[in-house]
């Protein structure tokens, strides 16, 4: 077949080399993930710094230094939680705007807007004089994350050859983990400096500047160009990213046909539930489950959690650096093996690994950490090892694959709208967990780990029975070769969706 190879499932595999152009564009775009990760990592460390707490949260500062204060409740403060969670409330709203921006202005322009918002937020936080200014900066950072998380995974999925799409898309998550790790190092280095928190928060400007400048050198996706009527540029860009000597005619014709179909859709959000219900459910629920693993409890509040177990401030920050390093290394497993082993295999293995770790950590805390004691050293070190093992399992599974699966399953006509639903679900649940965790820790104590364990069981069943495998399937053939053949979801495709899409 000229220009493509027939796959066993009936789809077509288009030719395409893993060119340096694709790799460079992917890495630059993935700096949107570095922005996200840096913020996740920096907020937990900053909220454990005495100089930060004394200036903005004096009540928490006093509670932290009261020897008889309940271990599980010393950081329980709604305003402190709002410092972390406000960003994700802003991101939820802004990713809706970003979904419109992706369609009207393209993925590239939307990423540039993300870097500009994030840069402004970093400056505002670094110079913050009061709580209001601090929260304002967090809202601007949230706008940057909402725009970036909407545009970057779509951008990577659309420029990547199908057989490399998984590994390339996970570079976004890889740079999230790198951002978390770098944030841990920065917090450790600045924790003893006068007002070192300003350096930590202001440092978010660095990845934002890199994305802003780097985005000037990357291409727009062929799909976005063709979708906006720039067919000639779309063809030239496709030829450029697929490499010299590659016949792109079949892939180009499929993109054109797909975009023409998509252009018939005047209200993508209106028809989303009619034509893409299975994708909406799976893409959204996998993002919800990503947060209900409890990972952000560890990533946001690792220093706080380790201090609760009796570690000194330096030791708790160092422990969070170690978990960050493991997070980075383990994500590389997904980069290299997701397109070989598939999505479901990694998800299911990690469920077992994370479940064991959560349950055992809960048992240790239940037995050894009470309201006012310090946890014995050996159990405390065991808990750190278990947390690191938990982080490793998440980092090669539900972390990167939540973004990958959600970005590759929607047809073009509902892709931005559908991916918005997934990103919004992620941001909403991140907000809920960030806003509620310290209060939950105070109320539930060690049982909070059993709470997250129960969700891990549920998400394992979901991955086993309801999540289809998408490995190696061209993104514009996903409906016919995956969803219409799945034992459960195929029942949603019995009617003429083209007619629905025109409605």
Automatic annotation (TrEMBL):
Compartments (UniProt record): Membrane
Keywords for the protein's UniProt record, in alphabetical order: Membrane, Sugar transport, Symport, Transmembrane, Transmembrane helix, Transport
Taxonomy, superkingdom: Eukaryota
GO MF annotations in UniProt: monosaccharide transmembrane transporter activity; symporter activity
Membrane topology, from the record: Multi-pass membrane protein
Main location group: membrane
One cellular component term from this protein's GO annotations in UniProt: membrane
InterPro entries, A to Z: MFS_dom, MFS_STP/MST-like_plant, MFS_sugar_transport-like, MFS_trans_sf, STP/PLT_plant, Sugar/inositol_transpt, Sugar_transporter_CS
UniProt key word Membrane: yes
Pfam families in the record: Sugar_tr
Family statement: Belongs to the major facilitator superfamily. Phosphate:H(+) symporter (TC 2.A.1.9) family.
Protein name: Uncharacterized protein
């Amino acid at each position: 077949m000229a220009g493509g190879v027939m796959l066993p499932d009936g789809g077509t595999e288009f030719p395409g080399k893993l060119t340096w152009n694709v790799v460079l564009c992917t890495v630059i775009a993935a700096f949107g993930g570095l922005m996200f990760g840096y913020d996740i990592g920096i907020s937990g460390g900053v909220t454990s710094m005495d100089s930060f707490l004394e200036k903005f949260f004096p009540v928490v500062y006093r509670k932290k230094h009261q020897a008889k204060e309940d271990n599980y409740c010393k950081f329980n403060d709604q305003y402190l939680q709002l410092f972390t969670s406000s960003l994700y409330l802003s991101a939820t709203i802004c990713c809706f705007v970003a979904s419109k921006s992706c369609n009207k202005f393209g993925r590239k322009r939307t990423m540039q807007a993300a870097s500009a918002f994030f840069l402004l937020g970093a400056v505002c936080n670094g110079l913050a004089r009061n709580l209001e200014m601090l929260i304002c900066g967090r809202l601007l950072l949230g706008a940057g994350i909402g725009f970036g998380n909407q545009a970057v995974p779509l951008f990577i999925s659309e420029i990547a050859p199908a057989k490399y799409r998984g590994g390339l898309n996970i570079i976004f998550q890889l740079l999230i983990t790198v951002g978390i790790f770098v944030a841990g190092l920065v917090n450790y280095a600045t924790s003893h400096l006068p007002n070192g928190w300003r350096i930590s928060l202001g440092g978010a400007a660095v990845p934002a500047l890199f994305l802003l400048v780097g985005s000037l050198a990357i291409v727009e996706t062929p799909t976005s160009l063709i979708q906006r009527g720039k067919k000639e540029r779309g063809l030239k860009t496709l030829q450029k990213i697929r490499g010299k000597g590659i016949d792109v005619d079949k892939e180009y014709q499929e993109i054109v046909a797909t975009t023409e179909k998509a252009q018939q859709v005047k209200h993508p959000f209106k028809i989303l539930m009619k034509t893409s219900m299975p994708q909406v459910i799976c893409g959204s629920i996998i993002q919800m489950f990503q947060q209900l693993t409890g990972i952000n409890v560890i990533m946001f509040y690792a220093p706080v959690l380790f201090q609760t177990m009796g570690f000194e401030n330096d030791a708790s920050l160092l422990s969070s650096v170690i978990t960050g390093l493991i997070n980075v290394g383990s994500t590389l497993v997904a980069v290299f093996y997701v397109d070989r082993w598939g999505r479901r295999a990694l998800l299911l293995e990690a469920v077992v690994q994370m479940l064991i770790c959560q349950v055992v950590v809960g048992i240790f805390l239940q037995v050894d950490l009470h309201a006012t004691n310090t946890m014995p050293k050996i159990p405390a070190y065991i808990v750190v090892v278990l947390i690191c093992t938990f982080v490793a399992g998440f980092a090669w599974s539900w972390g990167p694959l939540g973004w990958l699966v959600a970005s590759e399953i929607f047809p073009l006509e509902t892709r931005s709208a559908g991916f918005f639903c997934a990103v919004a679900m992620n941001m909403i649940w991140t907000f809920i967990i960030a806003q509620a965790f310290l209060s939950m820790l105070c109320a539930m104590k060690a049982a909070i780990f059993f709470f997250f364990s129960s969700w891990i069981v549920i998400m394992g069943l979901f991955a086993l029975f309801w999540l289809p495998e998408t490995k190696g399937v061209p993104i514009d053939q996903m409906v016919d070769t995956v969803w219409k053949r799945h034992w459960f979801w195929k029942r949603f495709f019995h009617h003429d969706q083209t007619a629905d899409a025109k409605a």
